[in-house]
Write a structure and sequence with these properties.
By secondary structure, the protein is mostly helical. The chain is built from seven helices and no strands. The chain has one domain: Orthogonal Bundle (MetI-like fold).
């Protein structure tokens, strides 16, 4: 099979948004899987067996038993991945190049290229505030839904 010349067109997997998403997913999947796996392992297997004995399919067992009981791990994994991905710098820089703009790259450019320290500090402060507010909102909604499930 002949090799393609360097200028040939093909599937673009570098220096675009898709490359950054694939790269970030590759890096942050373990941060999502570990909390989720820990919460799923704590589920009593007798609950799954009871659902199967009552005639639930695999999907119904997953949707009605496993997913609600693994919600704390799912939420903590999402918060962990979000807080790490929002500040990602190296992967978007390598995979996306100068074309893809992420918040970490914007702060870097403001600091070390434009020497706009006030702008960079404002962006970083807004990022920290937004991330903190998002985390508190998610945790408050989680607590509220847990209280509703308990009936108090």
């Amino acid at each position: 099979m002949p090799s393609r010349p360097l200028g040939s067109t093909g599937l673009p997997l570098l220096y675009n948004e898709s490359a950054v998403v694939i790269g970030l997913a590759n890096v942050f999947v373990p941060f999502m899987v570990l909390p989720l796996m820990a919460s799923i392992e704590r589920i009593n297997p007798a609950l799954e067996e009871a659902a199967r004995n009552l005639g639930a399919s695999w999907f119904q067992t997953f949707r009605r038993v496993i997913l609600p009981l693994s919600r704390p791990g799912l939420i903590s994994g999402c918060l962990l991945v979000y807080s790490a991905a929002i500040s990602a710098f190296v992967v978007p820089m390598l995979m996306g190049g100068a074309r893809v703009r992420v918040i970490g790259r914007q702060i870097y450019d403001q600091l070390l290229i434009s020497y706009q320290w006030p702008n960079a500090s404002a962006i970083a402060t807004l990022l920290v505030i937004a991330t903190t507010c998002f985390a508190f909102a998610v945790l408050a909604l989680t607590r509220r839904s847990a209280r509703q499930e308990q009936g108090t």
